[in-house]
Design goal:
Shape: globular
Strand order of the largest sheet: 1-3-2-4-5-6
Number of helices: 8
Structural class: alpha/beta
Distance between the termini: 32 Å
Helix content: 40-55%
CATH class of the largest domain: Alpha Beta
CATH superfamily of the largest domain: Response regulator
Length: about 240
């Protein structure tokens, strides 16, 4: 277990991972970006550190020596909505969906690129800051100068030209925007928008997302607005995260 000297001016990130090399690599990378870092190699230690020091974000491995990372995630979600990024060698779709359904905000498989991970950390911290500082549930307007989405007025435009969406296209876009920066699983989208009998009809989403990206001017190769986590789900992003 390692704990740096607290600095209230820096976001505090807790790493729970039993691999010393990974913790060392993450510690250097995160400290270089100005974050304060706490480390634990066991799940129980990580939960104790979280309770004592209230970090702003958790990076969590699933393969821990004393308990499964999913148990740690479930324990965290009993008392906090702090962002959790799962970092794991487990790349099966079922594992990813399980972690996301338990409340993980993101899922990154090992080996990973540090630039991608840091971008995901920034996204989660930014989203958490927005949530803690607003009275309404979510910002109802997204506008980056090219794409404008007004959820309340149900108006979308690209380069000031109006865009017409079908009711289901708008419903999917709204669901993704309400969880901005967080993966929404295919199962959840299908259940909420098509109904509980359609949770296996993933082709519905693939076809709809193809149309939606085309209408929003979203390049499917770069996925500026709607990012795909293959076999798992989708997320709406307001800054580009490298794939």
């Amino acid at each position: 277990m390692t704990l740096s000297v607290p600095d209230p001016g820096k976001p505090r990130i807790l790493i729970i991972d039993d691999e010393p090399q990974i913790r060392h690599f993450l510690r250097i990378s995160l400290k270089t970006e100005g974050y304060e870092v706490l480390e634990a190699e066991r799940g129980e230690t990580g939960l104790s550190l979280f309770a004592k020091h209230s970090p702003e974000l958790v990076i969590l491995d699933l393969g821990l020596p004393d308990m499964d990372g999913s148990e740690v995630l479930a324990a965290l979600r009993e008392s906090t909505s702090v962002p959790v990024i799962v970092l794991s060698v487990r790349d099966k779709e079922l594992e990813k969906v399980k972690a996301l359904d338990l409340g993980a905000n993101d899922y990154v498989t090992k080996p990973f690129g540090v630039d991608e991970l840091l971008a995901r950390v920034r996204t989660q911290l930014r989203n958490q800051e927005r949530k803690s500082g607003r009275q309404t549930e979510v910002p109802l307007v997204f506008d980056d100068g090219m794409l404008r989405i007004d959820l309340a007025m149900r108006k979308i435009s690209v380069n000031a030209e109006p865009v017409r969406l079908t009711p289901k296209e708008f419903a999917v876009l709204k669901a993704l925007m309400l969880a901005s920066g967080k993966i929404v699983t295919q199962t959840q989208l299908l259940k909420d928008i098509w109904g509980p009998t359609h949770t296996k009809d993933t082709h519905y989403l693939r076809v709809l997302l193809g149309r939606l990206r085309l209408k929003l001017g979203d390049d499917p190769t770069e996925q500026r607005y709607i990012q795909t986590e293959p076999g798992v789900g989708y997320r709406f992003v307001d800054t580009f995260v490298p794939s």
